[in-house]
């Protein structure tokens, strides 16, 4: 996909990696970005910053708690109305807080499912759209275990299964909507820096394998550059790891992981 002139919607785009996605998309010629985030988020500030760098009317902030189905539906509908359609949907909003694991599942998975369905609805050619791309935000812990946040880890595994399933040709042939996943490794945002103390049963960071504890945080800018690469080259249904300030690498997930003799 050439992102020039396209329109994008980002959930949880007021700060962290989501905001970096907005910057990188506009820097690469995207026409308009809609940021859907909480009422008490940095949404208004984020739009001011984007307009300062890229010009008036390039970004809008829509108040939306993604766990509220009506608000999410309204957010998509307003963005479509404002921009005359959507080409890119990034289901990014997420928390890492296993003390509030039911809310964590609602944000990281249930709302992401709804965002995927809404993306299909508004972009699918079977419903009057012009096709497009849905990027679902998983994590490196979408494919490896995470001792201190087992529920978070489960939500990120679920995102990959959903993406691979909606990424099958059966859906694409009807909708012309590509569905892919981005899987950042640990990245320098509030989600990471405030994570300690939110582990299930207060499991300490020392429970993490030494290798994971010692890993430096990558920049949000690297993840955002990774997103642009993925939008340009990713095949439908694929999942991409972005880690250690490097370019994305496609995850190889075997279709049938077990062979019996
Ligand atoms: N930071 C990392 O190391 C890392 C690694 C892999 C994946 N991720 C994933 O990347 C995504 C973004 O994470 P981040 O590190 O930028 O986090 P962050 O905490 O910096 O930003 C998250 C954003 O989501 C918004 N948000 C939270 N709950 C919401 C809700 N109910 N409705 C709407 N918006 C809501 C917040 O207001 C915030 O703007 C998440 O899905 C996260 O799981 C992060």
Describe the structure.
The protein is of the alpha/beta class and 261 residues long. It has a single domain (7-249), classed as Rossmann fold (3-Layer(aba) Sandwich), CATH 3.40.50. The chain has helices spanning 16-27, 43-54, 69-83, 101-123, 150-166, 169-175, 190-193, 210-214, 220-233; strands at 7-11, 32-37, 59-63, 88-91, 132-137, 177-184, 239-242, 249-250. Helix 1 (16-27) crosses helix 9, helix 3 runs parallel beside helix 4 and helix 4 (101-123) packs parallel to helix 5. The mean pLDDT is 95. The site of nicotinamide-adenine-dinucleotide has 29 residues, from helix 1 and helix 7. Belongs to the short-chain dehydrogenases/reductases (SDR) family. It is an enzyme of class 1 (oxidoreductase). It holds the Pfam family adh_short. Keywords: Oxidoreductase.
């Amino acid at each position: 996909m050439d992102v020039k002139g396209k329109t994008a919607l980002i959930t949880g785009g007021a700060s962290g990696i989501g905001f970096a996605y907005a910057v990188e998309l506009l820097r690469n010629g995207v026409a308009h970005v809609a940021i859907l985030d909480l009422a008490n988020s940095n949404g208004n500030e984020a739009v001011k910053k984007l307009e300062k760098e890229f010009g008036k009317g390039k970004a809008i902030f829509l108040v939306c708690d993604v766990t509220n189905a009506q608000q999410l539906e309204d957010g998509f509908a307003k963005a479509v109305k404002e921009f005359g359609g959507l080409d890119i949907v990034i289901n990014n909003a997420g928390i890492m807080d296993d003390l509030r694991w039911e809310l964590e599942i609602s944000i990281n998975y249930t709302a992401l499912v709804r965002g995927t369905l809404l993306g299909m609805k508004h972009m699918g050619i079977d419903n009057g759209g012009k096709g497009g791309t849905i990027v679902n935000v998983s994590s490196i812990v979408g494919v490896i275990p995470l001792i201190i946040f087992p529920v978070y880890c489960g939500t990120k595994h679920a995102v990959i299964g959903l993406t691979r399933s909606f990424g099958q040709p059966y859906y694409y042939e009807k909708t012309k909507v590509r569905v892919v996943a981005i899987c950042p490794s640990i990245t320098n945002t509030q989600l990471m820096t405030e994570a300690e103390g939110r582990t299930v049963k207060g499991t300490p960071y020392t429970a993490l394998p030494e290798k994971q504890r010692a890993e430096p945080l990558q920049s949000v800018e690297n993840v955002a550059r990774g997103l642009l690469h993925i939008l340009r080259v990713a095949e439908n249904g694929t999942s991409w790891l972005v880690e250690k300030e490097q370019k994305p690498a496609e995850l190889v997930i075997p279709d049938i992981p077990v062979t019996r003799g």
